[in-house]
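Render NAD(P)/FAD-dependent oxidoreductase in 3D.
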Amino acid sequence: MSSTEEKTYDVVVLGAGSTGENVADVVVRGGLSAVLVEEHLVGGECSYYACMPSKALLRGTEAIAEARAVKGAAAAVTGEQDVAATLERRDAITHGWDDAGQVSWVEGAGIDLVRGSARLDGERTVVVTRPDGGTARLTARHAVAVCTGSEAAVPPVEGLPDVQPWTPREATSAKEAPRRLLVVGGGYVGCEMSFAWHALGSQVTLLQRGERLLTGAEPQAGEAVLASLRDRGVDVRLGADVRAARREDDEVVLTTAEGELRGDEVLVAVGRRARTTDVGVDTVGLEPGRYLDVDDTLQVRGLPWMYGVGDVNGRRLLTHMGKYQARQAGAAIVARARGEEVAVEDWSPHTATADRAATPAVVFTDPQVASVGLTSAQARESGRPHRVVEYPIGSVAGATIFADGYEGTAIAVVDTEREVLLGLTFVGPAVAELLQAATIAVVGEVPIARLWHAVPAYPTVSEIWLRLLEAWRG
């Protein structure tokens, strides 16, 4: 494409992360033409700076812990984790931050790709500033899908921007472990990176402003992760209010109510903000810097040609939920382009119902925290009649085989009127693998009476399902 060429597509997608890729793939499979516009790496945050590298950093520690928890196998663990090899494996999983493989997939899927910085320029129009300084003007016949995601938010703490803090990007791509790492924020990123870098040799101090970790999860989850971090030697400080930051030579100094803390790097993990500041939303009457307000088909309210998909709408800031939204939005775009009726009721092919009722999530700490649907607090706030059932996972036969001294908890939130599951949380080693069954039960609103017939194989950790049902029956 020359610097002055204009081109029209059925769908123009801003952002070629996993969300944008899936929107484009669905509409192309539906018979429409699509172009992806990306300024950085095709594949986005998850592939290079979030899910994939962070879990690669954590996996070695997890594997060693699993081996050490089994008498006999533990004797084979005679050394410490190879930090250089762990980082090398992380680099391989991110393909060395090279997106050639992702570009090849895009081309093979019949999707066009334009490199450059994209801005809306009024209705259905996107102007791209390319790396060579030229511009391209793209017009959408049917839809512009904004899939620009989110970025780390840096809180308004005096001096914090000046110390060049790590965000999750730097935390997952660092080439070596800092000797002392200060972590601000006790959510999933702060907890996961505290585990990861402590295991790789850093002295970690975790500062959480609130009085517990993982505040959006069941309290038992935060308590278990807190105990585990402290057992490993991570200095976790709850109720910590960071008031100022500065650099002295090669040190980062944080000022808190309790005094000063010094480290070599500081990771800020206190939340995200929408990447809508520089994408021209003001040209269509929207306020830059805010999450896009969308309906359940991911259509921006008041702009029937525009879709906000993934993190950019603030509904559920998780990679798998962005991909889910992309599939739903893509289906809605194709249906509308064909003049077909779009089903807007819950659980239709065109709506992101799971955003509200059945979002699965895993925190890859040790213990892991896997959850789906409503927590007990959310059920209470919603006013739904419910009952909470708990059972120790370590009591089932499969858990005693999986690890000596297995400790964990399963928590079920049950709708007492309909007798269906509203939510489940599992806390314990390797519980992420229990989550899909729980998600199916919540999405399918499987009656408790029918779940009695879903017999768990013996001896597996999945026997926890039977024990929860027995606890429910009393």
